[in-house]
Give the backbone structure.
Amino acid sequence: MIEVENLVVRFGKGKAAITAVDSVSFQVKGGEAFGLVGESGCGKTTILRCLAGLNQEWEGVIRIDGKQLSPKRERAFYKLAQIVFQDPYGSLHPRFTVNGTLMEPIKIHGLDRADERIDRVLKQVGLGPAFRFRYPHQLSGGQRQRVAIARALILEPKLLLLDEPTSALDVSVQAEILNLLTDIRDSTGLTFLLVSHDLSVVSHMCDRLAVMNHGQIYEELTVDDLVARRYREAYTRQLFEASLGYDKRLTTAQVKALDEAGA
Amino acid sequence: MIKPLLEVEDLSVTFRTPHRMVRAVREISFTVGKEKVGIVGESGSGKSATGRAILKLTPGNGIVTAKRMQFEELDLANATEQDMLKVRGSRIGMILQDPKFSLDPVMRVGDQIAEALPPGLDRKEARERVLEVLEAVQIRNPQRVYDLYPHECSGGMGQRVMIAMMLVPEPKLLIADEPTSALDVTVRMQVLAILDDLVSRRGLGLMFISHDLNLVATFCDRVLIMYAGRIVEECKATELRNATHPYTQGLLASLPRIGERRKKLATLVRDPAWAM
Amino acid sequence: MTTAIESGKGGLRAYLTAEVSHSPTQASLQRLYFGCVRFAQNPLAMIGLGILLLLLLLAIFAPVIAPFPMNEQNLGRRLLPPSGAHWFGTDELGRDIFSRVVYGSRITLQITCLVAVIAAPIGLIFGTVSGYFGGWTDTIMMRITDIFLSFPGLILALAFVAALGPGIRNAVIAIALTVWPPIARLARAETLTVRSSDYIAAIRAQGAPAWRIVLKHVVPMCLSSVIIRITLNMAGIILTAAALGFLGLGAQPPMPEWGAMLSTGRQYLLGSWFLAAAPGLAILVVSLGFNLFGDGLRDVLDPRDE
């Protein structure tokens, strides 16, 4: 479904240029759930935005569903891949009702049977018709994220790009949203590309993952391998151990590494 | 039984909004000794309001009442603003979430730490003290860091600077409100290690407020779980698995964990009785 | 789909305060209703609104309210001080000042509304397009705006009126030309903030064309600030119109434009203070009304509060 070859993204010009994504290559099979894991600034969100068509300054090769894509996308592309953003409080337009937000893609692509589609997609994300004419400020974080997912689903894409979809949510709400995403994947067979800094979320949702740091993929492995600690890179180990919680014995030795890395 | 540094009995914080009264904290009681106590809750549980109420930093429209709020020999419940000025920073320190917002952006980091020093030191002495304190938080090149501005520091370094600043006046109790939430996962562990080290070496009490149950369970000695303004569970961190309150159990069950290949996570079914 | 609006207070009120809306219309009306309720809780804002309503009433019912026709001269009753027959006295041609002030409200209202209606959309479109597209578009459009901004408002208005000729219509155009640049700057600043938000990225990621994003998604976010700014500018617009009138370049005699009345009143200030005081007071009160109303609007509309 996704083929990325030697993707390079640079911000800024000349001497001050930063290479956010440094020749990254990976593939995602159709129907698979693939995770991109890394800490802030590693480039994972940049890659996602390049795939979604939001970032148009990149070099390399991107193929989605077999078609090679250029930085400027045609309108038809957006029916193929949709993105769900991290912050439910920022990703819905404050002046549009839920209905308005869901109508926009319908109008943009000239789709028919608007009411039917909206009702169907709201049902799919577990929101009843009572939510249809609410404004975002009348919704909780979890409800907003459901609307964001509904918005992504209404164009019936084949690929769902998820940018830390539950990082901004409470733990109990996170569980609901993750379950919802699992349900959606089961019923539609969508391909997921999930970006997160949280290894436990990725290991729950995904089949395979890639670990990123400083704009590069350090390691690609299956979740089974990760769980069995069959990773090769020291950085993967660091992330793994940090996700288990605080361990005094491990970290005292690593404190000096902080300064060496200039953190 | 550790002698408590802080004893709180029946603390309530109520906020007055135009439409109704919001009871953020409802008659909670707890103690903090020379140990690490974690206060865990989701948004709206009242955990941050608790931390601020102790230092009387509740915003204007909040009303704080307590049957008893005793810090060592001081009666915080009836303390005036004048009294609190002598407590904040020097007896009880507070570390907040994002060093970007807690540090003055137009002042060098070293100078800000120096502000926390007692008055009367000359510049050379003050600089030496600051460098000492920077070394105590494991900053290897304190001379270079002294002259940095906050925006030139990474998250982890900024937070260590905050810790350094809070430790200068040698308080006995530290209140940390989500001190590592804004940090990357690997840096987080390292900052916690420094905090852990300092707290145990200096015999401080630490009140660690967070939404991250897993982190608190592994870092702290005791855990308090808050829901809807009340403390619903109080236990030793090591015994969290045996928690009795259904909210705690629900929360633990809904966390995704590496290695547990469950198809669906258990979702929390909120019982209105918990908010009583 | 829509709940039928029953006549009578119960039905309408229930419709407006219902927990769940059933149509886009109901949702919008509910929002409007709650905005009005919040506005009504601000006493100063209500005073401002009251003043503006009074202005509107005076303008609409001028022939009924004014006891004398506005241009009826009576040279035998010149410069009479305020009395029972002439509440604000008479001017140098024996015309009733009160009646002229009342009729003058029409001109004031006309000028302020026309200027707002012309300047706001121009400024809004200029600013949002400039801010959204950035690059050369932004640079060129902003430099054009800068050219207009670099002149003090009154001087620019004077220049235009001098070029176009005196009269109300040209005064309105001239003032509108000085009012749109700050609106454009404001709209651009708001657009720059809005442009990088996730909800704009979201609609881009759904394939929306640029014009749709600017008109349907960016402009509504700038609208509040622009409305508030224009309302607060009204006082300035009235004063500029008054100044033009004062200099003889706005409304031409015998029109009872308040600024022109002030101008003639100046000559008689020592002996007949009421010639200048009446229109001057009118200008003061209306400016104050717009300011109070604009402040109240800001408290209700400012998105930062939400």
In short: The interface with chain B takes residues 39-40, 141, 170-172, 174-176, 178-179, 182, 197-201, 203-205, 226-227, 238-248, 250-252, 254-260, 262-263 of chain A (CB under 8 Å).
